[in-house]
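note to self: the first set is below, dont mix up w the second
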Amino acid sequence: MNPAAFLHGRVLTPSGWVRGDIHFDQRIVAIRSEHADPRGDNEVPYILPGFIDLHVHGGAGVDIMQGGDTAVTVARAHARHGTTALLGTTMTAEADDIVRALQGLAGAITQRAPGTARVLGVHLEGPFISAERLGAQPPLVVEATLDDVRQLHAIAPIKVLTMAPEIGQHLALIPALSALGIRVQLGHSAGSYEEGVAALDAGAAGFTHLFNGMTGVDHYHPGIATAALAHAQYAELIPDLQHVHPGAIRTALRAIPRLYCVTDATAATGMPDGEYALGVQRVHKCLGCVRLESGSLAGSALTMDQALRNLVALGLALDDASDRVSRFPADYLGLEDRGRLQPGAWADLVVLDRDLRVQQVVVEGERITLD
C-alpha cells in the first residue's frame, strides 16, 4: 500500500469538520488541516468514515444463506455504496442450511477479498425467534440452547444474535451469550414491555430492526418497541422510509441515544425488478420495494449511502447522520479503530459530493472500483 496516499476535502473527524488532507496506508496516518472554513467551497468533497452495516442478507442477486463464496459477492456489491464493513446475516432455516451459510461466511471473515467490504462476523437473525412475529422469516423457529449457539459460534464468529426473550429459557441464556462476546438483540418477538426490560437487565444489548417484527407502542399494553424507546442505548432501524414512518423514526431518534441504521439488504439490492432468493423463500422487488408473495415487506433493497441521504432528508445534520451509519455501529461492536477518522484507525473512507453521492470508497487503504 502506498504510504503517501491521501485525499483532500472536508474531513469529518471526532472533533468536527476540518478542511484539509487525510493521509493513509492501511490505516490513517495523519489529518492535516488547511485552517480554512470547512463549510466553504461547495465543490470540495465530504470525506466521512466508511459505513458499517450490521444487518446484510444479500446483494447483487445472491443471498448469504446460499453459502459458498456468496459473502464475497455481497461484500463487493455493498462496498461500491460506501459500506466498508458489515455483518453477514442469516435467516431462520434448517440447522444444516445455517451451518452451510456460516461455513461460507467463515472464509470471508478470515480473509478480506480485494474490492470488498470487511466482513466482521455474523448476525444470526434466526432461528431463535417467535413464531408469532416471523415477518419474512420462514416458520422454522427453535428454542436456543447454549450448546447450539456455541457450535455455530465455532464455525464463524457470531457478533450479533437476534432472540425473542419470551421463549423458553432465552432470558436465562442472555448472560452466557453476552459472556461469549455476542450482542443479544431483541427482535421478531411477541414479548411484553416487561419481558423486554427484563432482557435488557439480563444483558441484552439492542433491538433488531426497531418497530418491525415486534410488539409495539400501545399505551395500554406496551411491547418490545416501547421497552426500546424507554430504556435502550442502542437499536438498529431500517431507514428506507418503507419499513418505518418518518414520524416514528424521529421518535426513535429522540428516545434512543445511539440509534443506528442498517439496510436489511436482500439479494435484490443493486438489481432490477424481479424475483430473488431470501433464504428458502422467494421475494419480489418492484419499484425499490422487496416483498413476499403475500405482499409483506421482506428485507429491503436499501444501500447505506441512500440510508445516509434519507437521514439528511429527514432533517439530520450530516455529521449526526454519519454517526448513525458509522460510529455508533462500530461502538456497538466495541470497535475503536473503525467508524471514525483519526490517526491509527483503519483507513475506511467514503468520499461524497455535495449531493451526498459516492465518489470514492477506501477499505483498509484499498481504493474500491465503483464501476
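second set (the one i keep forgetting abt)
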Amino acid sequence: MPEYDRSGPDEPVTLENWMRPPHNVVAYQHIRELIPTAAIPRGEGPVLDLAHDPAAVPPPAERAAELAAGLAGRTHTDALVVLHRGRVVHEQYDHGMRQDTRHLCMSVSKSITATAVGSVIASGAMSPGDDVCAIMPEFRGTGLEGAAVRHLLDMRTGTREDITTLELQRAYYSTCLWAPPARFPEAPGEDEDSRGHLWRLTQVRPHGGHFEYRSTLTCVLAMLAERATGLRLPELISRHLWQGLGAEHDAEITVDRNGNALADIGICCTARDLARLGEVLRRDGLRPGGARVVPEGWVADTLTPDGDQAGAFAPHGTPYLTVPGAYYRNQWWVAAPRVAGRDGVYLALGIHGQLLFVHEAAEVVIAKFSSWPEPWIDELARASVAGCLAIAEALTGSL
C-alpha cells in the first residue's frame, strides 16, 4: 500500500481537491469552511461524562490500549476513542485533531439519521410498515411505489442506484455543493438540488429482496421523517437524538442550495460525541441514570434479523462486512445478532475509514475517524473491524 505525506498539502484545500489525499486529511476537519452546513444543536442539558478513571477499568486495559494504538497507526486514523463500561480506556488524536474538533462522518451519518428516525417511529408519526407513497404521494409513479419504510431502513427496495458513473457522481456532488458547478454530457441535466435525482429512481426487481447498499435510500428516509414531523432534518436529529444524548458539542450537517441536509454522508461531529452515541446505544438507548434517549426496543429490533435477512445480505453485503451471518438492519451493519441476553455486535461504517463499533457482551464502544487515501480499501476495512474485535476481546478475556 503506498504511503502518503501527512505533513500537509503543498496547495490550498479547495472544493475541487478536498476529497483527495493529502487534502482530505485537513478538509474532513474543516467542512464548514468549504461547504454550507446547518447546526445540529446539543441543547443545554448535562454532558454525558466519559472521564478517564484508572480505577474503573480492568487490568487488561493496558493491552487494549496497545492494540488500539497499533490499529490507529495502521489505518490512517485521525481520532480514536475506546470506551469500556462508559469510561475512556484509550484516546488519541493525530493530524491536527483535538477533542473538540468536528470531523466528517461520511456514511456513519446514515446510522445517526436512522437512529433519530427510530424516535419518529416510536412517536407514532410513521411506521416501518407504512407505504412510502402514503407519507409522500409525490413518489407515486417512481420506482419507490409499493416500497415500505422498512425496505428503506434495511436497503432492500427494488430500486436501481442511478448515480453509477464517476461523471454522474461528480454532477451529483455539484448539486450537493460538495464540488464546483459542472455539467457532464452523461448527466440528465443539472438538478435544482440534491434531491432532484430521487424522482428518477426506477424499480428493477421486487421490493423486499436482497440487500444492496444505496445512499439514495437514506435521503428518502430523511424526507419521509421530515414530512411526518414537520421538522427539517438538522432539527429532527437535534430534538430526537443529540439533545438527549449528552453530547458536549453541537454537530453539523452539510446542506445544498435549498437547505436540504445530506442525510447519508453529511454529518460532522467530535469523536467523543460519536462515542457517546455508541455508549447510549450500548445501554439499550438509556443514559446513565435511566433517562431514555433512543426508544425502547429499537436496538433490540436492529439486532434481531428477519428470517431471511442474513441470506439477503450475502450477495452484495459481504464485500463490506466479511463476517459470517452478518446483515444490515435499521441502517446499521450487524456483525452478530443478539442470541442470549445482550451479546450483539454492530457498526456504523463510512468511506475513508469512519467507524462506530458497539460490542454489547464486552461492554465496549469504539469511535474512529480516519482519512484513508481511497474511499474504500478492503485491507483497511478488514483491519479496522478485526482490530475493534481484538480490543473488545482484550477487555473481557475470551469472548
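remember for set 2: The domain at 23-396 is CATH 3.40.710.10 (Beta-lactamase).
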